[in-house]
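Comment on this:
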Amino acid sequence: MLKEESDLAAPWDALASTSVGAVATILGIVVGGFVGRRSQNQQWLRDTQTAAYGAFLREFTAVEIELREAYLDDRPNNANWPPFNAALTSLSLVATRDVANAAGDLADAIGRFALLVADRDPKNRDDLQRIMAELASGQLAFVNTARRSLDGTQQSIDRQLGGPPPWREIEPYAPAPRSGD
């Protein structure tokens, strides 16, 4: 009788062992699929954010250059606003809150610059210096915020690269100081 019981135990042991192996395999596939899909989604988001941030910076630079030249030439601006606005809108789809706020601040500064260009009052050197400093610091803030959003281990950069030139490069072309300044 003992022999029959041990013969019956062997199939149950095999069945239990096979079942545990099957469950572990299925669980591994499900967890692997979830982790893989999450990793792919994160990579897609980072790639999309990088492209959106780059497009925004390109369009910002194009508009800034046109506004600066229009201001210095004392003429209406011919900025190509649709690509700038499209880049800003696209950025809003994938940007973190901090990046969206930094982009919004930079867009607000561009708007103030456009108003200065459109103003019919005589051009003012101090206004130009102030808005150029605001644009430069806004661009640097945007870049650093974007860098951190893409990879939290990236350190901030201390120097603006591209975008509005430093005041020393604009100053020779700026309107003459008003008398009494």
